[in-house]
Amino acid sequence: MQKLTAIIPTGNEIHNIEAVIASVKFADEILIVDSFSTDGTYEKAKELATKVIRREYQYSASQKNWAIPQAAHEWVLLVDADERVTPELEKEIKETISNPTNNIAYWIGRNNHFMGERVKYSGWRNDKVIRLFKRDLCKYEDKQVHAEIITNGKVGSLKNKLYHNTYTTFDAYVEKMNRYALWQAKDYDKKTGKLTTYHFIIKPFWGFFKHYILQSGFRDGVVGLTIGYLQGYVIFMRYVKLWLLRKNRQ
Known about the structure:
By secondary structure, this protein is of the alpha/beta class. It folds into 2 domains: 4-165, Spore Coat Polysaccharide Biosynthesis Protein SpsA, Chain A (Alpha-Beta Complex), CATH 3.90.550.10; 170-246, no CATH class. 39% of the residues lie in helices and 25% in strands. The protein has helices at 17-23, 41-48, 60-67, 87-98, 170-188, 197-214, 221-246, and strands spanning 4-10, 29-34, 51-54, 75-78, 83-84, 103-114, 117-118, 128-134, 138-140, 149-151, 154-165. Strands 1, 2, 3, 4, 5, 6, 7, 8 and 11 form a 9-stranded mixed β-sheet that branches. Strands 9-10 form a two-stranded antiparallel ribbon. Strand 9 and strand 10 (149-151) form a beta hairpin. Helix 6 packs antiparallel against helix 7.
C-alpha cells in the first residue's frame, strides 16, 4: 500500500487539534505546520503528531506550499483544523492510493456546518476542494485567499466528503471574514480599476441575492439568511479595504 502524509496547518486551534489529528490517525505521517500558536496548540500537537514544524503565517497558500515539500511520502492529504476525515472517507482514501490510476490529485466534497446547523444550500451545497494529491506534482496558486491546488496532471473525484465546521462563535466568524476581506483586497488590487458605486453597492447586493435567492439560501432558514448577509458584507468590506489600501490607510 502507498504511504500517506497528512498535513494539518494550525494557528491557535486548541479547540480542534485533538479531534482533527484523531481523524487522520490512519496516515503514515501526521505533519503539523503551526504558525506560532499561543494557546497550547503547538504543545498538544507535539504530543500527538509525527512531526511539528513552525513558520510565521503570511497567508494560507504560502504556508501550505512551504509545508508540502516537507512531507515524507508521495501522497499528501491536506486537512484544515476545522475539518474531519470521516470513517467512510478514510476507507475510500486508502483504497484510492492503494490502486493507482493516472490521477495525481482528487477533489473531495465538504459537508458544511454553520451556527450549529448543516448547510444544505446557500452556495455551499456543492463545495469541494482538492485535498488528496501527489506531493511533487501539485501546489497552491499564489493567492491571499481561496487559493486552489494547481495540478500537473489528471484530477479525479472521491465520493465521500469531509466534515467541515468553520464556526466557533458569531463574533469570531465575523472577525475571520474581515481578515478575508483584507486578503481579497490585496488579490483584487491588480485586476480592479477605479472603485465606483458598482463595487460598493451593486456587487455586495448581488452577493447576497446570489446566495440567498439564486442558490436557495432561504431554504436554510436563519442560517441561510446570515450566510447571504455575510457574503454581501465581505464583498463590501473587500472594496472598502481596497480603497483604504490604495490610500495607504490600511
